[in-house]
Amino acid sequence: MSSISKILDHNKAFVEQSRYQEFQTTKYPDKKIVILTCMDTRLLELLPKAMGLRNGDAKIIKNAGAVISHPFGSIMRSILVAIYELKAEEVCVIGHHGCGMIGLQSSSILEKAKQNGTDENLIDTLTNAGIDLDKWLTGFPCVEESVSNSVRLIKNHPLSPNHIPVHGMIIHPETGKLDLVIDGYNSTNLPESGKRGCS
């Protein structure tokens, strides 16, 4: 049986047995927070539990590394929608130790893409069209610096309201311990780009 078949079978029973009722809430985050975090599987349940969050408490946006790669991309748009339309009053960027984006090189992904049937001419065409695949597919050397960069981008975005605190944290993916990198209540503590130390 395929993964999707198993999911659909489980879902049928889930709905028929009304197990959804304990998760019912509104579209507005009860704790008025929007979180940008990594898509790492270890954080799926650990992060909300480590933060004391229940279903409906927060808007959670996930991507590889909790990185905002473009100031006018879908991640930043989602954060702005959460603030202006869904009543979020704080933003929290949460990276994690042992992230797969640390040290990731574009060459590794591009080589695997070729091994899976992507034509090298297509890669050349994208590069010649001005798409910087190396930058787009490269990770970061330091999670602390990456979190700081995302916080800075959100805080300094031209459409971000000045009064919204933007926090930066790092979670340990095994213990759930949270370390505060940037206290959004203290707007004077934003480090300059590249100045945050790596651990």
Automatic annotation (TrEMBL):
The keyword Metal-binding applies. Belongs to the beta-class carbonic anhydrase family. Its EC number is 4.2.1.1. It catalyses: hydrogencarbonate + H(+) = CO2 + H2O. Its cofactor is Zn(2+). CDD domains: beta_CA_cladeD. SMART domains: Pro_CA. The lineage of its organism: Bacteria, Bacillati, Bacillota, Bacilli, Bacillales. Binds 1 zinc ion per subunit. Zn(2+) binds at C38, D40, H96, C99. It holds the Pfam family Pro_CA. This is carbonic anhydrase. Keywords: Metal-binding, Zinc. One of its GO terms (molecular function) is zinc ion binding. The keyword Metal-binding applies. It comes from Bacillus gobiensis.
